[in-house]
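Design request, tokens follow.
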């Protein structure tokens, strides 16, 4: 699960730099990546809840699934009627410090609630962000939250890095490259075939598959660390996922950037080829008429 998730942050930044956020492929990539994040976070919550009990049985899994679904449903149904309105009321005061404190408080509150339910704190914080994004003041809140986000992101990567044995990273470079290649291939083909089956154009399907095949990122580290915390995964997996994250963080922008340029050139060549064939077909009837 850790090696299959797409980094939404990296993809958004690359598409923004290429000025392609309004393209059809970009919409498909971001929509799929967001749904993927929700599924991954939900599965992580279920796995952590099951692992925390120390037993893996059908009953425990059903209880964990029920708690997770109840939490998500409560957040989206009840929370969506309270949190956005509360954020808008605070935003009308034009006090940015109070607004950012309220946003952070909502994130901490939902993270604490999810922790008390035995669910991953990442799930609580994620859905808190979803609720804040539903408010009319979400644009201002997003800008104000950027410095705080960078601080917590730095602390997160420091905590993850402190758990890693960097002397083991050289040993995992080749296995990580193999897993990256397998992951890209395993995601590219299903996405491309699924898009083509929905009668999406060849170029859009290829670009969507390229964008979603760039695995890794911060969610991969969250999943790996969550598995280790509950004893469901060996600590050895963290240096492996960390090595993959480092490599994919560097190669993903180039895969998307040059992949999209290659599809543009390929389409232009096809257009030229089809244009030449059309001219030849038009010339043949005219030659027969002259004869």
């Amino acid at each position: 699960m850790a090696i299959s998730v797409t980094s939404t942050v990296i993809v958004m930044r690359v598409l923004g730099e290429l000025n392609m956020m309004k393209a059809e492929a970009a919409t498909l990539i971001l929509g799929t990546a967001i749904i993927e994040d929700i599924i991954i976070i939900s599965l992580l919550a279920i796995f952590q809840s099951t692992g925390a009990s120390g037993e893996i049985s059908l009953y425990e899994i059903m209880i964990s699934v029920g708690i997770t679904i109840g939490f998500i449903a409560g957040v989206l149904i009840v929370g969506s009627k309270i949190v956005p309105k509360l954020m808008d009321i605070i935003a009308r005061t034009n006090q940015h410090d109070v607004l950012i404190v309220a946003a952070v408080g909502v994130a901490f509150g939902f993270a604490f609630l999810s922790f008390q339910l035995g669910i991953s704190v990442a799930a609580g914080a994620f859905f808190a962000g979803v609720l804040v994004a539903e408010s009319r003041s979400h644009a201002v809140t997003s800008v104000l939250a950027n410095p705080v986000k960078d601080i917590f992101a730095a602390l997160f990567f420091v905590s993850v890095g402190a758990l890693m044995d960097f002397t083991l990273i050289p040993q995992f470079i080749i296995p990580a490259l193999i897993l990256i290649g397998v992951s890209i291939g395993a995601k590219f083909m299903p996405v491309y075939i699924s898009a083509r089956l929905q009668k999406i154009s060849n170029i859009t399907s290829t670009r969507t598959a390229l964008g979603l095949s760039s695995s890794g990122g911060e969610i991969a580290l969250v999943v790996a660390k969550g598995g280790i915390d509950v004893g469901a995964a060996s600590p050895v997996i963290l240096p492996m996922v960390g090595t993959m994250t480092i490599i994919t963080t560097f190669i993903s922008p180039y895969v998307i950037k040059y992949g999209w340029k290659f599809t543009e050139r390929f389409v232009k060549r096809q257009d030229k080829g089809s244009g030449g064939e059309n001219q030849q077909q038009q010339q043949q009837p005219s030659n027969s008429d002259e004869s």
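Comment from the thread starter after seeing the answer: thanks! The chain has one domain: 8-269.
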